[in-house]
Amino acid sequence: xxxDLPTHVQTVIVGGGSIGCNTAYHLTKLGHTDVLxxxxxxxxxGTTWHAAGLVVAGILKSEAECExxxxxxxxxxxxxxxxxxxxxxxxxxxLQIASxxxxxxxxxxxxxxxxxxxxxxxxxxxTQTAELFPIADLSDVKxxxxxxxxxxxxxxxxxxSLAKGARMGGARITxxxxxxxxxxKNGAATGVRTSDGQTITCENVVICGGMWxxxxxxxxxxxxxxxxxxxxxxxxxxxxxxxxxxxxxEDPSTYTYYREEVGGLMLGLFEPGAAAWNLDRIPDSFxxxxxxxxWDRVGPHLERAYSRVPTAMDVxxxxxxxxxxxxxxxxxxxxxxxxxxxxxxxxCGMNSLGILNGAGTGMVxxxxxxxxxxxxxxxxxxxxxxxxxxxxxAYRCDxxxxxxxxxxxxxxxxxxxxxxxxxxxxxxHDRLADAGAYFTESSGWETPDWFAPTPQQAKxxxxxxxxxxxxxxxxxxxxxxxxDVIVMDMSTMSKFMVEGRDACAVLNRLSCNDxxxxxxxxxxxxxxxxxxxxxxxxxxxxxxxDRFMVVVGENSHGHTEMRLRRTIGADExxxxxxxxxxxxxxxxxxxxxxxxMEKLTTADMSNDAFxxxxxxxxxxxxxxxxxxxxxFVGELGWELHVPATQAAQVYDLIVDSGRDFGLxxxxxxxxxxxxLEKAYRDFGLDVDNTDNPIxxxxxxxxxxxxxxxxxxxxxxxxxKDRGVPKTRMLQFLLKDPESxxxxxxxxxxxxxVVGYLQVGGYGHSLGGAVGIxxxxxxxxxxxxxxxxxIWHVEIAGEQxxxxxxxxxxxxxTMSKVKS
Length: 819
Fold this sequence. Notes:
This protein has 819 residues and is of the alpha+beta class.
């Protein structure tokens, strides 16, 4: 039957599950009421109807994750009072157990951070843990971590309550309408077409189609790397005297969550070696559907799950359920405006956490649509972070089995994914492997993390929250950078050639710094949004009068390209070319870098002829390369941008000539420790779209008086006019040389919590762990307060004395860099 649909609305939402209804609800709360939600079957019929309904925090390591979660928990507890429809929310509590010291340490590290953001996670004893969940065998448990306010909701009831709230706000929700096409014009979404031939035009299309989103997006050229996987839970028959308000229990050692279900017990599996479902296409007609369970595959995992609650084996099985859930390659959702189409937004790929994070995600997306930018940091969830490689059938097939276990298992720092590797490899990969590289993954790239003395030793893979087996090898790399010279393959860095009549004007409009400089100058700059928040930090090098090279970290590739292309006006002549694959970036750094370079080239590498922040074409062997005298490690050195076809020869020359100067290969662990000693910032790790360059200590690269201004200029001028900020980014050095920092540690000033570290590492030159983080006071944070304050950083419940500084603790005068 053809539905009576409007021909035009402001916003069309495709998908009537938790995410679609949450987005509609939050749009109406912002006064954006001309909303039409179209559901191909019935509300909740995709995956929402069979969700476990857990409203539990897990381990949250970013402010954005905490904001998304706490918004949802609060809304779900209060929504019934607004709509009159029950959500089924019950705050039965949430209990995580730790059965080894690594897990205890991880949870002790993160608990203060989560409490600071409104999540009441606290440690309890094994005895208290057993009292909360008496039917479990907890004899191996070393500690429990409990959130009494967390709990569970009824997924269907919750979604229906959200739908009613959206309708009360003016939204229209229509079932049994299948959207088969997103209409486009001039690179923008303009509407949708339904399977019965109706066309609805609109200003915004929002894809909230769950596991169907990938194929709907692909039809419009939109890249949405997500894949459905089998997800199992078992429900037992009634267990005598089972408390109805039994807390939700999560156990990474069995990859299982446990909760009460109508007198029985639900055992939900997130097993390693999971199975992808329908790699080619999700059936359009699949609704309220189940998948035939694979008893042979899942049987061993069920045995492990039962080992935690052996008494449950004394009762029968009411139901073994298998249904699909969609997962993304990095276990973070896909949210935001798509880079392929303007006015086309997406929220999908929730990694089986659609109920848990649905409200917060809907809130973020609604603000994004209405205000033009998100209200929180979205660098980790922005849909523009992936390339098409991660959406290929082969990639999804290989990566998906790892994801469920990775989501629910034990976590370690520096642990890369094991599947779907070698997506992008430098032309130097084999040489680096022969040199002892252990490769990690970054945005699909294989990149050396550290170097072992032999290739065989690089194959040893263990992970820990404490000092790892490669610690001494990494320290040797670090010392070589500070005392001799290192070579680093930085091919992962994204490189965009920007040229044309208006290239300078466009780049200057984006950049806080002035990039209208002499040919051969390298400019460090931030790009900001209208609120003054970071959108990128990068270098812009003027190669000719109308030709520039933009170099940015690989984690910002998609976002930088999207922002760059969308800033070009219709009447401006600018060509943007992604040169990343064609250029191998080889970095040479250290106090002996000049001596090494002088052996490699006929060019004058002296400080007078080749000053800091300049670029020249030089010869290296048979190659002519662009050499940029710039650093991210705080030492004399150059970035060599080498044609990929000649990179092997250039690398070999560097290695051969470098033997006389103590040259070592260096990996990402060393890059991180070196740059943290120098307090260099990194967008997406230390600063994000909610931070600004003034408070981040990068005011030197903000030219408020440059002609024609730049995006975010007025917001940054207002911040500058307020004087010394109340929030500032500081560098910290721990006084205890044995302690380690990984990020998210709380900062104390004179006994009070004043912030947390964004990132941490070990400063082998400074003699202790180093980190950088924002500190916020109720008064201007002056240099005197920083110098005279008593500072501590909390690590796993212990406060460690620290030194704080506004200036880099290593080479604050830049004498080494400029030598």
